[in-house]
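Students often ask why inverse folding is considered easier than folding. One informal answer: many sequences map to the same fold, so there is more than one right answer. In these notes we will look at a single instance of the problem. The structure comes first.
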């Protein structure tokens, strides 16, 4: 029995050795499991093909600047009381001068206002008098002052001024316009002070010195007021406003 089992043991031992060698051969990569299409598959993974370039175009940045007219436009106020710079109206210059007229208006972008019932509103009607801006009364616009023209002159001098309509006044045409005005500015000289100096110290030329007329003041000082005659004349001239400050301004 032992002699018959010995060959079987040898066969089993040989089969185990062959099985071990076959597994090592397969794992080494040279066996039959190394398929033909495995190499192209590895190549396709390594070669991604032509490169695609995607250009990302950034969106235009939204403007966050506040319009200049917003500084004059109150928020959530009545639309009918907004300044003229905050609204756009469909005006008609063919209306009758001096007559009441109504125009359709729309608030400008970013401006918020309400109606009489406190509801948001963008379109509304405004009532005004038919007249151009340069035809407004003097209290409805502001003009630049000139400090170079002579207010005390004969004939009275004029100058060209740039005038701008006040914010809450509505009119037709340009809100800024030139206008010819009389010289009307003051340098701070008081008529009452000049008259008091002329009466009390006029003989020493104090009134002329006060008004900036130093040449005439020296003449009165060294002539003792022209022996009193010049003093009396100056009292009359200053009293009626004929003699004024040397810079050409008006009294206050």
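Output (designed amino acids):
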């Amino acid at each position: 029995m032992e002699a018959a089992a010995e060959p079987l043991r040898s066969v089993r031992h040989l089969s185990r050795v062959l099985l071990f060698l076959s597994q090592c051969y397969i794992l080494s990569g040279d066996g039959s499991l190394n398929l033909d299409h495995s190499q192209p598959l590895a190549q396709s993974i390594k070669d991604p093909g032509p490169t695609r370039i995607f250009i990302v175009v950034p969106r235009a940045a939204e403007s966050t600047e506040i319009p200049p007219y917003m500084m004059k436009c109150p928020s959530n106020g009545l639309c009918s009381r907004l300044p003229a710079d905050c609204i756009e109206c469909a005006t008609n210059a063919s209306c009758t001068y001096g007559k009441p007229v109504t125009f359709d208006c729309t608030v400008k972008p970013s401006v918020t206002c309400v109606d009489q019932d406190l509801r948001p509103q963008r379109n509304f009607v405004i009532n005004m008098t038919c007249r151009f801006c340069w035809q407004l009364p003097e209290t409805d616009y502001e003009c630049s002052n000139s400090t170079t023209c002579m207010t005390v002159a004969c004939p009275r001098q004029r100058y060209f001024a740039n005038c701008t309509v006040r914010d809450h006044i509505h009119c037709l045409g340009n809100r800024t316009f030139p206008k010819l005005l009389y010289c009307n500015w003051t340098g701070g000289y008081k008529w009452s002070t000049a008259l008091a100096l002329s009466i009390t110290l006029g003989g020493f030329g104090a009134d002329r010195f006060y008004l900036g007329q130093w040449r005439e003041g020296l003449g009165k000082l060294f002539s003792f007021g022209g022996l009193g005659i010049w003093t009396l004349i100056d009292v009359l001239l200053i009293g009626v406003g004929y003699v004024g400050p040397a810079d050409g301004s008006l009294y206050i």
